[in-house]
Amino acid sequence: MVAATAPKAITQAEVTGPGAWWCSGCGDFGVTAAFKQVLLTVVNDLNIPLERVFAFSGIGCSSKEPEMLQVNSYHGQHGRSIPVATGLAVANPGLMVVDFGGDGDSYAIGMEHLIHACVRNVNMTLIVMNNQVYGLTKGQASPTAHIGLRTSSTPEGKKGRSVNPLRLAIAAGAAFVGRGVSWNKNELADLMRKAVSTRGFSLLDVFSPCVTYHREPGFRGSGPIVDWYKSNYVLNIRDAWRDMRDQVFTAEERANLPAEYDPTSPGAATSALRLIEAAGGIGREVTGLLLVDESHPTLDENLGVTAERAPALADVSLASNLRSYRELLEGLR
Amino acid sequence: MRRIQVCGAGRAGDGTNTNILTLGQALKDQGAWVFLWREEVYSNIQTRDSAFGLRADDRPVHGPDDEFDILEAFDRGAFLDIGGEGRVPPIERLKAGGVVLYDSSPRLEYPNAGYEITPEMVSEHVLARGMRVFGLPMGQIAKERFGRYILRGSVALGVLSHLLAIPEEAFLRRLRASFGKDSELVTQNAQAMAAGRQYAQEQGWRLPDMTLAFDRQDGDRQFLLGNEAVAAGAIVAGCRFYAGYPITPASEILEFMAEKLPSFGGAVIQADSEMAAAHHVIGAGVAGARAMTATAGPGFSLMQEAISAAGMTETPMLIVVCQRGGPATGLPTRVGQEDLNETVFGGHGDFARIVLAASEPEAAFYTIGRAFNLTERYQSPVFLLLDQVTAQSTYTVPSLDPSLFVIDRGKLLDEAAIARAHRGNGRRYRRYELTDDGISPRVIPGASGVTTYYVNSNEHTEEGYISEEAAVRKAMVEKRVVQRMAQIRKDSDLPPPRISGPEDAAIGFVGYGSVCGPIREAMERLAADGRPARLLELQTLWPFPSREVRRFVRGCRTVHVVEYSAGAQLRGLIQREATGPMPRKLRSILRYDGRLITPGYVIQEMERGT
C-alpha cells in the first residue's frame, strides 16, 4: 500500500468536509478530530496517498462522518456499510477501508454482517460510535443501552441483556478489538492508528456520548454525561488487569501472566473475555486495546487477490482474454 | 428415427440424473440436438420420487414435448403415485406403443429399497396400454457382477445402446473425458454397459423402428445449462467479482464462478445472505469491478434494499433472477415466473432500471454481455430474468463465440482523462456532476488526483454531500429517473421483441423465457391444422417495448399471454404499458402447478379458453 514516492503532504483543512450535523458537545466531534489526525499520519508519515483511503458509513448520527471529512467515501443504508465495504476491499485490496458505524447500525441491523466480517477477516477497520441510543430517530434504546437505561422506547428502563460488541468480535475472530472514548482524542487516535494498520478485521468501538438523548439522572449535558461515563461506566483494560486479576485468574494462571496487559499475547483473547465478564459483574465496560492477532489470513488473501492483482483493475479487454475464453467455452460441449 | 423423448424415473440420489445426462451426452455427440430437463425433482436430496427428461431431435429443441417414447423405470415411482398425493407418474405420459425398460430385480437397494417393481404393476399399468416392456434385472446384475448397485444405470444404458443403435464408444468417450482414460470407473462402467448389451442380445430384444440416426457429427455445438451460459457469458463480458448465496435454481452460477473466476483474476464471495451478496456487488461496483450476483425469489426479496441503493448511488449492479414457484419458499425446484413484478417494480423509490430476459442459453450468453454494458453505461441496476427451466435445463446450442462481445464501460475515466478534466483548473471530481446527457463520469477509486469520490444513498449534491434542497432534489431525480429512462429507451443494445410466424395470423402468443420453445412448437401444430399463429417473444421487459407489443396485439384477433404465474404478471404489464385492459382480446394461458408447459398444454389451454 506504500507508494514509491511520498505523496504530497496534507493539512487538516484538506481532509475537512463541509458537514454540520451534530449537536453541540456530541462525542462524534472527538472521533472526527482523532480520525483527521490519523489521516495526516497515514498520508504524511506512512506515505499512503489520500486517494487510497476509502471511508464508509451507514445510517445514524455517526454515519454522517463522511460529510465531516474529505476523502473518497460511500454513505450507504442502515446496517449495510460492512458488506459494501467488504465488496470494495476484495475488489481492490490496494485501498485502505475504514467504515464508520453506530451502535444501532453495526450491532442491531448490521449484526449479521459484523460477525461474518470478523469471521472472514475482511481487511478493514470498523469504527463504531457507540452511544447506547438511536440518536437520529430521537432517542430510542440501542442494543448497547445498559440495563435500566430509560429512553423513549424503554420508558421503564431497559430490561434483559445488552449486546457486548467486544466479546462478540473476539469470539468471532476479529484481528483487532479495542475500545476508545471520544473525550480522550490522543488515546483514541492512537487506537485508530493501530486499528487501520492491523492486517485483517479491526473493530474499534468508541464510547461517544449522545448529549441529547442519553439521559442519566443527574448528568444532563455534554460535560456531565462524560463525567457519568468516567465515574460510573468505563474501566480501562490495563486497570482491570491490575485490579481484577486476583479475582479473575487462579494463582496457577497468575504465575504465567505478564505484569502488564498485553493485547498481542497468545492468551489475550481469553484474558480479555474474562476481564470483560468480570468488569460486567461490577457494571463496568472495559476500554483500551484488547486484542491484536494478525496470525490469520485475510479474506483477500484467501481469495488470492492483491493490490496488484485486483479484480477492479483487471484487464477485461477481449483481445487479452480471447484465448482463455475459448478454452472456457470448450469445456461446455 | 430422428427424434426421441426419454424419461428416466426413480428416486432422488439413485443416479437417474446421471443416467439421463450420460445418454444425452452420447446422443449430442452423435449429432442430435439434445434437451435435458428436470421432469420431477423435489426439494430433497435422497428418497423422494424423481424423474428426468431427455429429448433428442434433428433440429434445435427448447423444451419438452408432451409424450415420452421410452421410460426407464428405476423403481415403482415411475408407475405409481406412491404417496397418494395426486402425483401423475411418468408412465401416464408414455405414448401408446411406447417402450418401458424397468428394473426387474427382486430387491433394490437404498434409496430404491422397498420401491421394487412387481410383475403385477407392469401388467396393470403397462401391458394394458400396448406398451413394449423390457424387464431388466439391472440392479441385480450390477450388484452380482460388479459389486456396485449404482452401476445399474450403466447396465440400462448398455441395453439402450443396443436397442437404439448408439455406439458404446459414444458413452465411453465422455466417461474417459470425465474420469481419465485409465480410470477404474471407466472400466467398470464399460463392463456394466457390455453386460446390459449382452443381456439384451441374449433375450433377443430389438426395436428396429426406434433405431436412431442423426445427420452429422457436430463437435462445435455447446451442450450446457442456461446457468452455465450466463456464468460463462459474464466472464467473457469482463465480470471479475461475483457474490452469491446458494439457492435453487441459481446455485450453478455461484458454483461455476467459484471454479472458474479465480483463474481470470476474479474473486468470488459466498456471502452470509443475499442481502450481503447484493451489497458486496455494490462495493465491488464502486471499486470499479464488473460485478454480479444471481438468485431466486426469496433471495431476490432480500436484495431489494440493495437494488434501491444501487439506483440512488448510481452504481452498476447486475442481478440474474432464476425464477421458481413462489411465494415465500414456494416450490424451490420447480418453475415459476412470479418475480417479474418484483424486478420491474421492486426496490423502494423511483430509479432507472433495465429488465432483460432470455429463453435459452445462446440468448442468455450474449444478453449478459449487453447487460454488463448497460449497467455501466447507465450506472443503474440491470436484471436478467431466467426461470427454472432456462436456468437448469441442458440445451444444445450453436457454438458460442466470445469474439462477438463488445465491452463498453460507459463513462469511466482513466487517469489521463481525469488529469485532462481536472488539471490545474481547481475543479475537483464530482461523483454526481450534472452533465448534458445526465450521466456523471465514474473513476476507479484510488486513481491519482481523486479524493472527492463521494457516493451517497441520501439525496445529494453533485459533490455527493447530503442535500434536501428542493432544487437539488428535483435536478437529481430528473437526472436519475427521467433523463436516464429516456436515454435507456433509445438504446439499441436493448434486445427487441422477437416476432415469428406469418404476419396475417389471427392467433397471437406473447411470452418470455422458457415458454417460448413450447409455444413455437404449438404454432407448428396449429399451422398444420390450418390455424396460423404468431409469437412475440419479449427479451426486454423494462423499459417495456410498448409500441411493438401494441402493434402486434392490434394485428391479431386474439392474443394469448403464456406464463408461469397465477397472477398473470406479464399480462398485467402488457395491459399497463401497452394495450389497456382489452378483456376480450387479451387472454392468459397460465401454469402454476410447478410443471412444465408443453406444446400440447398451450393448445389445450388455448382451446379451453376460446
Explain what this protein looks like in three dimensions.
The complex is a heterodimer of chains A (333) and B (610). Chain A is α/β, with parallel strands linked by helices. Chain A is 39% helix and 15% strand. Chain A has 13 helices and 10 strands. In chain A, strands 2-1-3-4-8-7-10-9 form an 8-stranded mixed β-sheet, sandwiched between helices. In chain A, α1 (28-45) crosses α7 (185-197), α4 packs across α5 and α9 crosses α11 (268-281). Chain B is α/β, with parallel strands linked by helices and 610 residues long. Chain B has 4 domains: 4-210, Pyruvate-ferredoxin Oxidoreductase, domain 3, CATH 3.40.920.10; 223-404, Rossmann fold (3-Layer(aba) Sandwich); 412-489, no CATH class; 498-609, Rossmann fold. Helices cover 37% and strands 21% of the residues of chain B. In chain B, the strands form 4 sheets. Chain B has an 8-stranded mixed β-sheet. In chain B, strands 8, 9, 10, 11, 12, 13, 14 and 22 form an 8-stranded mixed β-sheet that branches. Chain B is globular. Chain B starts with a strand and ends with a helix. The chains are: A alpha/beta (333), B alpha/beta (610). At the A-B interface, β2, α3, α5, α12 and α13 of A face β7, α7, β8, β9 and α9 of B.
